[in-house]
Amino acid sequence: MPSQPTAPLDLFAIDGLLDAEERAIRDRVRLFCDESVRPYVAEWYESAQPPVQELAVALGQLGVLGMHLKGYGCAGTNAVTYGLACMELEAADSGIRSLVSVQGSLAMYAIWRFGSQTQKEQWLPAMARGEAIGCFGLTEPDFGSDPAGMRTGAKRDGDDWVLNGTKMWITNGSVAQVAVVWAQTEDGVRGFVVPTGTPGFSAPEIGRKLSLRASVTSELVMDDVRLPGDAMLPEANGLSGPLLCLTEARFGIVFGSIGAARDCLEATIAYAAERNVFDKPLSGYQLTQRKLADMSLELGKGMLLALHLGRLKDAGKLRPEQISVGKLNNVREALSIARECRTILGAGGVTLDYPVMRHANNLESVLTYEGTSEVHTLVIGQALTGLSAFR
Q: Mean pLDDT by 10-residue block, N- to C-terminus, for the chain (391 residues)?
């Protein structure tokens, strides 16, 4: 008689590595995704019209927007709990996790970490509730991996600042109420809190995407955007500010990518159990079981790595190059798992009837944003050798 199937991560007894609160919040986010995202996400992906404003409010009510920050209406959870939430959100769709990551780990974190008390009180509570959506403007059309070359500039005009420039590939841009924009000044790179209704600011949406279609991606255009002097983030000086924000966002991806891979694998195991080939379930063949076993091993190793990095972060011991290890490994393996799952699903795997191709397409973007795989490889190489190979 066949035995009861085991879920892939149960092979690694993951639940035993989490405390009761971590499991409870993870399960609550999973339930939210089951009820409010999964039934609709294929349609959002196909139409490329996700209801971002409504989702933001619902996610705010769930308590995941800026959940790892303290004060200002934020939950103040530990890093592992935030990572587990990212895992469940990305198991539903990378676009939903991107919305939460950009809101909490980029826009909100920048204001929380570098902003004035007035900026924090003005924006963070509304952002935590999802009533104000934020975006983060660093990448430019000609400067992605090399942000030091950015051309966006901010100049003093009396007591005001005047911003000019263009940012590209900005999640949430055209639906945001506030943008954190990084610009060159006479004193180096500085960050600015920009209400998106400011004259001269526009955010045309980027279309024709084949990835992250359940997410809004935009260009930011600043044409003589005039801001008061106190719009600058006072505690951020130089590239260390935006790079610290990116480190926060990369941490969520370490967990989130595992969620996408897990969803692919669970859907594939269920399909293979029901699909009969030559009068026998597809899951009963040795080649299929080898694929499932290999993918489960990589999934479990990636999950253990994510948890280890989360515990280091909670202990205040996590180094940037260690986040590069997690991001490079877990996204790369998640993409490999998605592609392998597609081979088991056959032709059905290329349709939106199953989540696999949607996850695979999304992961192509996740592989690139918040640092390409090449950049993280060089970060690790520099850590190992003590020599920079970036130039």
A: 86 97 98 98 98 98 98 97 98 98 98 98 98 98 89 97 98 98 97 98 97 98 98 96 95 98 98 96 98 98 98 97 98 98 97 98 96 96 96 82
CA distance 246 to 173: 17
135: which strand partners?
179
Separation between Cα atoms, residue 125 and residue 123, nearest integer Å? 6
CATH match for 134-238 among 2.40.110.10, 3.40.250.10, 3.40.50.1220, 3.10.450.60:
2.40.110.10
35 is catalytic: no
Provide the phi-psi class of 66: left if phi over 0, else alpha when psi is between -120 and 50, else beta.
left
The pTM for the full model equals 0.96
CATH class of 8-128: mainly alpha
Distance CA(203)–CA(10), nearest Å, equals 44
Find the catalytic residue in 90, 140, 333, 370.
370
